[in-house]
């Protein structure tokens, strides 16, 4: 089964037009033609079952035959992590977090991070393909913040803040019921600086031990998301 | 903390000689010199705390100051998965499985797999660096088998066989106590063929649902290993 993505504005009443690379993929790679059925999402929870009306060189015209509105999982999960300098590792972490079910990804530059330029356009296309691959109907948003305080102050409000910490042996006990949003933070490569640590204390996060072996930043991010998604 | 790896034969009484790339890394990149302390493992569970005696261009001579014998976690986990055609995804799965704690990795060519050549030398160096990175003292072995029946018949004996299966909604209940070895199998890209499915039934595996979204092969492998390592 293939899922296709269009921007919400590309859905007009009963019609959808797919342009660009996605259209070329449908016509040239998958060789779909008039009358074939495809499933499309707008990334806002809508699933559109469509029939192909017309295939042109760079545009595919669809008619919506049936539509379904999905609801997002609860609690919504934000993954917040330091930028990983190696692009393939960063993209892997983002891809896996989307496959496993996060709603939002916040990246920040840690004080101890090695500097690396983030290609936001590439990250966005990673997110779109991971959404399609995993058959999700919600497109997670990606934010790149210049430091930890922007990452937390802009995105952790009204969430339960859970901090993966290598220095704790056991996770905090926590039985305070179901929060509606979780904010999962994984330290940057090179670890938190002491001022970052001090800053985080203000938010009174729940400390979570990833346990066992020393993990790379992207591994920590992936397993943390998987563990909290499964608690839902 | 840096951990270095030598082949068991490179440990002679109280002396260790590190050669090749690892020696160049110590002398040129880390710029260690006589008197510095390093930690070395032979991948067989031995941790050697050493002092550098002499640094030559391509060899570093060490004296063992102290040694410790680690015991392997129980149960030992084998990850068995189809070969992933894209090399970076395959190497990523192998790296993460080692970081998270597997003892053995068995790769096989599925009937529905797209053919891809496996660079065993690259996989071995991936395994060594992941072991060092995660501060483990046991070097997992990697086996590449030509089909599923070789993979299972050679490696699943005397293990508890757990099969990740997209087609089951819930995992089998299982309370039969602690087995000493787990054999975790993840289906190949493209899924099992019907003859592969029939073959697997002979082994009466426990079916395990990864749940939720459709996962790529490498994601399934990573989260499955993480979940079973944590049950230990």
Automatic annotation (TrEMBL), chains A, B:
Residues 74-225 form the Ribosomal RNA small subunit methyltransferase E methyltransferase domain. It comes from the Bacteria. It is an enzyme of class 2 (transferase). Its EC number is 2.1.1.193. Its main location: cytoplasm. Keywords: Cytoplasm, Methyltransferase, rRNA processing, S-adenosyl-L-methionine, Transferase. It is found in: Cytoplasm. It catalyses: uridine(1498) in 16S rRNA + S-adenosyl-L-methionine = N(3)-methyluridine(1498) in 16S rRNA + S-adenosyl-L-homocysteine + H(+). Residues 18-64 form the Ribosomal RNA small subunit methyltransferase E PUA-like domain. Specifically methylates the N3 position of the uracil ring of uridine 1498 (m3U1498) in 16S rRNA. Acts on the fully assembled 30S ribosomal subunit. Belongs to the RNA methyltransferase RsmE family. This is Ribosomal RNA small subunit methyltransferase E. It comes from Rhodohalobacter sulfatireducens.
